[in-house]
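# nightly structure sweep
# worker-07 picked up a monomer target from the shared queue
# config: single-sequence mode, recycle default, output format = structure tokens
# input follows
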Amino acid sequence: MDIQALMLITADAKQTQDLVTLVPWTFIIQICNLFIQVYLIKKFLFKPINEILEKRKNLADKTIREAREAQSEADSLKEQYESSLTNAHAEAAQIVSDAQKEAQKKADTLVHEAQEEAASIKARAAADIEQEKKKAINEAKDEIGSLAMDIAGKVVEKEINESDHKKLIDDFLNKVGA
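# output follows
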């Protein structure tokens, strides 16, 4: 190695040492500069960011609280709805039951009235039949009576007065009726 190379190495070492050396005033000013920067960052950057974060946290808490209140209100309304629905089902079942009972009563009443009317019609029909039967019997008696008179008149060939005639008819009818 030659001298020049050695000198270059020494010069480099000195320059490197000059870069690494600590100058007290420069160090103090840099420290003051660092504190000023920290203060300014804290005042103008961290404080507003912390305020914004606090506002966002409060807003989120408020939203969560409102959501919980809305959830509890919804649960309360759901319980009321379910209770109302249960009551409505019970009332509907009662109404249906009452309507069925009423319909059954009306049906029973209508059937009873129809049976009474049918019995009345039967009774009237039986009375009409009985009356027609009596009428037919009376007509038959009258005709039989007149035939009997004719026959008796021919047999006896005499005239019978009216009282004898009636007596003969009644006797004949009694024998026929029996």
